[in-house]
Amino acid sequence: MCGIVGAIANRDITPVLIDGLKRMEYRGYDSAGLAVLNSERQIARERSTGRVASLESLVKESNLSGNIGIAHTRWATHGKPSVDNAHPHISKGSVSVVHNGIIENHEELRRQQLAKGYKFTSETDSEVIVHQIEFHLKDSDNLCEAVQKTVAELEGAYALGVICRNNPNTLVVTRRGAPLVIGFGKDETFIASDMSALISVVREYCVLEEGDIATVRTGKTTIYNEHGTEVERERLTSSLSSDDAELGDYRYFMEKEIHEQTRSITETLEGRIGKDSILELAFGPEARPILNDTQEIKLVACGTSYHAACVARYWFEEFGFKTDVEVASEFRYRTPVVNPKTLFITISQSGETADTLAALQYAKKLGFAHSLCICNVPESSLVRQSDLAIMTHAGPEIGVASTKAFTTQLVALLMLAIALRSRRCAGDGCDQQQLDLVNELRTLPAKIDDALQNEALIEQVAKQFEDKNHALFLGRGAHYPIAMEGALKLKEISYIHAEAYAAGELKHGPLALVDENMPVVVVAPNDTLLEKLKSNIEEVRARGGRMIVFADPASGLKTDEDEGMTVINIAPVNSYIAPIIYTIPLQLLSFHVALIKGTDVDKPRNLAKSVTVE
Ligand code: F6R
Structural domains in the chain? Predict the structure, then answer.
C-alpha cells in the first residue's frame, strides 16, 4: 500500500529519503511527498502526483534540505490521487505526519477538530492524525506523549512517522496493523515500512511490534511497548543486497523476476531436501510435532497466493489430507466449523496483506490447532504471528505482478505436502513414490530453465493479442488454478479482460463467448485429464475459436494455422511439478502482451504491491 521512510542524521537526509521512496515505490505510486525541518527550524515540504522522480525534481528545484525528515509514497484509499491528498500532512506549521494504514474513525475526529477550528486541506483519513497530535502538543511540548495520546484515540491501522518544529532532534514513530522498521547507522537513524527502503544506508535494524512507539534520535532510540514500558527489540542484520533491488540488464523487474526463477527455486529447495526425503526440521524445530498433529488442512490467502493455495489442495488431497481453500477476505467474515486438528496455512509474498493477517488472527480465535505461513519476507507480521514459517527465499519481488513469489510458494507447498504425505502413505520410512517426488523436486531448476527457452516463440504468439480486449484461459485439475493465475497476470499488466475456466465448464456457458476475437489459452500437460481436455479443445475449435495451447509433446496436439491453433511444446514433466513449470509460459505471455500494449509493466494502474489495508 503506502510506503513510509524517515531519517535523522548530522547531514542532509533528503537524498536518503528520495532513494528510500524509490525503493519502496512498489508499495504504492500515485503520489509522493517529503517534509524536513530546515535550517530555519521550519517544516518545509514538497509533494507531487505521479512517480517519485517528479518529487525528486521538485526537491532539487527548491533546494529542500534538512537533518530530520519524513517521506511517503501513496496508494490512494481515502481521497483521489492529488497533491493535496499526498503526505506528509502538516498542522499549523508545527507538526508533520506520514501515515500508512486506514483510520476508521476519521469522520468523527474530523467533526471534533472542525469544531475546534482546525482547517482541513485534504480529503484523506490521515489528516486527522496530524491535527490531533498538534492538539495534544498544547498540553506539553513532548512529541512522544502527544503521539501516544493521539494513537489511543485512533481506530484502524497505522504506521506513523512524525516530526515537530519544537522537537528538532526527535523523530517519533509508532505502528499498529502496518509494518515499520528502524535502521541503525553510525550516529544516524532511519525508519521505513520495510528494510528494502534502507539497504543503501544501513544493515542493522529492528522491527517494531504491534503498539510500539519509539523516539528516534541520532545516537539513541528509545522504544516503548503498547503499555508504555521501555523495551528492547532484537537487533537484526539484513541479508538483502542492493543488487536484489536493481534492474541490471533487464527493462522491467517483472522480466528480471521471471528469469530469476531458476535461481529462486534453487534457493527455496536449498537445505530442505535430503537423499530420499524432505528435511522437515529445516522448516523449524517445532515442525515435526505440528505436522504429526495435523489431520486436516485449511489454506487461506489472497490473489496470486490464493492460486498457489488452490494448486496445493490437489497435492494435499492426493496425499490423504482433507483440504479446504478460501480467500482471506471471505474467510475472516464466516463462522466455519473447525476441526481443531486442522493446520491453518496462510500464504503471502509480503506477509503484510491485511486480509491474510486478519484471517490468521481470526483462525487463532476459532481454535485451529496450529498456524503455518508460507512467506517471502522474514521480518513480516505474518511470519512473526505464525507458529511455523516456511520462507520461500525468492528474494525481493519488486514487480507488482507476482511471479517468482508464486512459483517458490508452490515449491514450498509441494515440499510441505510431501513431508505430510510420509505420515499417511509411507509411515516413517520411505517408499518409491516419495523417492520419485524428491527426485522431481531436484530437477525443478533445470526444467524451469527449459521452460524459459520458449520466450522467443511466446513473444511471437503475444502479437495475437495486440487488438484483443478479452481472453479465456482453460485448464483442468491442478492446472485450472494455473489458468486462473495466467488470466490474473494478463488482466493485471495488459488490462485485457481475462477469465479462467475449468475446461469442463466451458459447455455450461462460456462457450457462447467463443469466436475469432476471443483468444483461448489452454494449459495441456500430459496428465490423467489430457484426453478430457482434448475434447474441450475440440469444442472450441468447432466454434472457430483461436487457441494458444501450451502442451506436452506427447499430447499429439499440433499447430494448425488454418484452424487458428498454435501449439507451444513444453518439455515433458512429471504431473506433480507440472503446475510449477506451466506457470512460466503464462507469465512470459502476459509480459510480452503488456509490452505490445505499452502498459507500465512493473506498476500497473490502480494496484499496489502490498495490500496492507482491508
Ligand atoms: C498478483 C498479486 C496479488 C497478490 C495479493 C496477495 O500478481 O501480486 O494478487 O498476490 O495481493 O499478496 P501477498 O502474497 O503479499 O499476500
Answer: 3-244 (3.60.20.10), 250-450 (3.40.50.10490), 455-597 (3.40.50.10490)
- pLDDT digit string, tens, across residues 110-155: 999 999 999 999 999 999 999 999 999 998 889 999 999 999 999 8
CA of 518 to the centre of ligand 1 (A): 27
Q: Is the CB of 349 under 6 A from ligand 1?
A: yes
Q: pTM of the prediction?
A: 0.76
Helix (H) or strand (E) holding 244, with range, is: none
- Ligand 1 centroid to residue 297 C-alpha, Å: 21
Measured by CA distance, the residue closest to atom 11 of ligand 1 is: 303
Is ligand 1 within 6 A of the CB of residue 304?
yes
Q: Is 186 exposed, middle or buried (0-12, 13-18, 19+ CB in 10 A)?
A: exposed
Catalytic residue among 22, 256, 404, 609: 609
Question: Which pLDDT score, from 0 to 100, does residue 327 have?
Answer: 98
The pLDDT tens digits of the residues spanning 371-417 come to: 999 999 877 889 989 999 999 989 889 899 999 999 999 999 999 99
With cell 539513541, the residue in question is 220
Contact residues for 467 (Cβ-Cβ < 8 A; gap 6+):
none
pLDDT surpassing 90 at residue 173: yes
Measure the CA dihedral 121/127/133/136, to 10°.
70
- Gap between the Cα atoms of 375 and 285, Å rounded: 18
Please give the Cα distance from 415 to 393 (Å, whole number): 14
75 contact partners, CB below 8 Å, separation of at least 6: 1, 2, 27, 28, 29, 30, 608
- Binding site membership of 355 for ligand 1 (Cβ less than 6 Å): no
Edge to edge, the sheet with strand 213-216 lists 89-91, 95-103, 156-164, 171-176, 213-216, 221-224, 230-231
Residue type at 69?
Answer: G
Q: Ligand 1 pocket test: which of 254, 353, 398 has the largest number of ligand atoms within 8 Å of its C-beta? A: 353
Q: Given pLDDT bands bounded at 50, 70 and 90, which one contains residue 426?
A: low
How far is Cα of residue 156 from the mean position of the Cα atoms in its chain?
Answer: 21
Q: How far apart are CA 199 and CA 469, in angstroms?
A: 41
From the candidates 2, 144, 302, 310, which is the catalytic residue?
2
In the chain, the amino acid numbered 135 is F
Q: What is the DSSP letter of 290?
A: H
Render pLDDT for 54-64 as a digit per residue (tens, 0 to 9). Answer: 999 999 999 99
Question: With the C-alpha atoms ordered 379, 385, 387, 389, is the resulting torsion angle positive or negative?
Answer: negative
Mean pLDDT over 295-321 rounds to 97
What residue's CA is closest to ligand 1, atom 4? 303
Asked whether 350 lines ligand 1 (CB < 6 A), one says yes
For the question of residue 302 being annotated catalytic, the response is no
Whether pLDDT at 275 is above 90? no
